[in-house]
Predict the 3D structure of the following.
Amino acid sequence: MDAEKQYNGKKILITGGLGFMGSTLAHRLVALGADVALIDNFLPGHGANPRNIKGIEQDVQLNLCDIRDEHVMNRVVRNKDIIFHIAAQTSHTDSMKDPFLDVDINCRGNIVFLEAVKNNNPGARVVYTSTRAVYGSPFETPATESTRPNPVDIYGINKYAAEEYHKIYGNAYGIPYVIMRFSNGYGARAQIEHSKFGILNWFVGLILGGRRIKIFGDGSQLRDYTYIDDMIDAFILAGVKEEAVGKVYNISAGDRIKFVDMVKMMIEVAGQGSYELVPWPDEYKKIEVGDFIADSTLIKNELGWKPTTGLREGLVETFDYFRENLDYYLPKE
């Protein structure tokens, strides 16, 4: 990938750097010769894990801080060429139980971050990590970047608001931004202890922990799942490609599979596990979106991105990683 050559010597900041996506991106950037700084506030239950940077601990600068801390943010954004902005409150259910926390992090936190960039480093490229949740219950499937947002929970609406903040700061203050809407990511270094985000990743934990998977309803809804290495490829392109600035991109493998068939494949790949069908709990049924498939044609045409890892291959890699590192991600009770 030609874009990878442009990272040698670049000064990079990753917010949410100890989580699933941030840490995997850090590993790739260190290998490419970048000067990488990470920040993370270790929000309980959100996946920040020191194990995620095993092997690059001495090659990154790690700051324990929060994007809502304006004094720290004013300092850490300085002198950076590219900022991959991943930090967020990412639980759909928690956003409904504690909407004020979601607003504080995903709305106010992004304003604090953008003010820091505006005042200290407005030339830095900001790659903002958004989500398929902005489409909510989609008006059309597959959903394209022009599909009208229809969030079904507080998390989805606040992530969409944060997208709009980035556009406003880009247009008003010249901050070069890129918005990435990721769809159902899975793979090594994910949080696998609970179901609050990343259902497939949680199922990995259930299977390896010897627990039965419960599928709500009949599991017939269609989904697409994107392997972490393919997601990182999209980040790498968005960070340096000039045509990416000011754009919104869907990132999705685009493979359509029924939810129940995904579970069956996981059990087959793992060589263990079981599932049962159960009625929908009210708290989940109210925010269920039905079928969701994202269309990633735009990023494929403009940046040359394409997924290279099929679901079965990605699951093999994922189970291999967690079997080797299980004690760090699924502590024994």
